[in-house]
Amino acid sequence: MHVDLLEVDLLQADLLEARLLEAGPSGAGFPVSNADADAIAGRAVAALVAEATLTPKPGLVDRRGPGAHADVELATLLASAEALRPTFAEIARASAGRWPSPELREDLARIGRDGERRMFAVTGGANTHRGAIWALGLLAAARVLEGAGGSVETVCATAGRIARHADRFAPPRATNGARACRAYGVSGARGEADAGFPHVRLAVATLRARRAAGAAEDHARLDALLSVMARLDDTCLLHRGGRRALRVARLGARAVLGTGGAATAEGQGALLALDRRLLALNASPGGVADMLAAALFLDGVPEHRSPAPLQAQREM
Ligand SMILES: CC(C)(COP(=O)(O)OP(=O)(O)OC[C@H]1O[C@@H](n2cnc3c(N)ncnc32)[C@H](O[C@H]2O[C@H](COP(=O)(O)OP(=O)(O)OP(=O)(O)O)[C@@H](O)[C@H]2O)[C@@H]1O)[C@@H](O)C(=O)NCCC(=O)NCCS
Ligand SMILES: Nc1ncnc2[nH]cnc12
């Protein structure tokens, strides 16, 4: 059932991407019909489902089980992803014809917080996708703002420009992330967005490099996840297991990649060893998982803005 829905989502999203490419590099202000908004939301939900079902992911929920999460299983993640469909569609509609401004930032934050309520309602209070609502929400808005000419580079930069505006209506919240940022001097999910999502770009680059080298799709996705795990200051790891958990995750991810990645027998062995070490520390790289989902959401978007065709350049 889920696979069918996913295929429909991907088909709609591919049609939207084909239309964006056909339209040529027309710049910002892409008008968003309900069908376009639904296609963007479909792409976001499909990315969350693809991340959730990718197996084996060290410490994380996957097809094998709940990983280090006592309160979340695969069905919870899938229900959470589906519950967020209207949130991503609303974000796409609200972004039509806008530019990065305090007003847009505040509109998205309101929709994002409403999405968090939907998420908590279906998960019984577990935080499955707060980081994903934040990252994919900003990137979905940026895709609309960037329109036909958008690339991974420009979409991530524009998402950063939106994020850097203040949200005057943000209620004070003592979140795990905020506590970890204070305790360990890292910038967390906010810092990642403010910097224009460098780890999402890293995941996209790894994904594409591994595919180009002939890797199977799941291996390319696992290596993209590990490339982020080797570097990200994940506040989910920090709040659960402190600096030790972050270090174990980083060194473990580097060990898998150093042995040739998920496609090799040694890499698979190192990956499962990392999984065991993270489970022993009750540590989960939830923020890393969100970065992979965000990278999958940008699948199909070209890495760089394509240069204007020669004819158009002569007319400039
Ligand atoms: C700006 C916000 C992201 C809030 O951030 P803050 O840091 O204050 O709060 P958190 O609630 O901790 O959310 C941050 C989530 O982001 C993910 N993350 C962590 N590190 C990074 C990183 N370096 N870069 C990017 N993303 C990162 C991570 O999400 C995943 O982990 C979640 C599980 O975490 P946790 O709650 O700690 O869960 P448990 O360990 O299971 O908790 P316990 O059971 O032990 O209590 C999981 O959800 C993954 O998604 C962090 O959790 C933003 O949320 C915000 O301001 N939102 C307001 C609305 C808004 O503006 N929206 C914009 C819409 S476009
Ligand atoms: N697969 C996963 N496991 C645990 N937390 C997550 N947050 C987002 N995806 C996750």
TrEMBL record:
Which InterPro entries does UniProt cross-reference here? CitG, TriPribosyl-deP-CoA_syn
GO molecular function list:
glycosyltransferase activity; triphosphoribosyl-dephospho-CoA synthase activity
Nucleotide-binding listed as a keyword: yes
As recorded in UniProt, its EC number(s) are: 2.4.2.52
Q: Does the keyword Glycosyltransferase apply?
A: yes
| Entry keyword set | ATP-binding, Glycosyltransferase, Nucleotide-binding, Transferase
Q: Which reaction does it catalyse?
A: 3'-dephospho-CoA + ATP = 2'-(5''-triphospho-alpha-D-ribosyl)-3'-dephospho-CoA + adenine
Q: What does this protein do?
A: Involved in the formation of 2-(5''-phosphoribosyl)-3'-dephosphocoenzyme-A, the prosthetic group of the acyl-carrier protein of the malonate decarboxylase.
Report the sequence similarity comment from the record.
Belongs to the CitG/MdcB family.
- State the name under which the record lists this protein: Probable 2-(5''-triphosphoribosyl)-3'-dephosphocoenzyme-A synthase
The protein's organism comes out as: Ancylobacter moscoviensis
Taxonomic lineage is: Bacteria, Pseudomonadati, Pseudomonadota, Alphaproteobacteria, Hyphomicrobiales
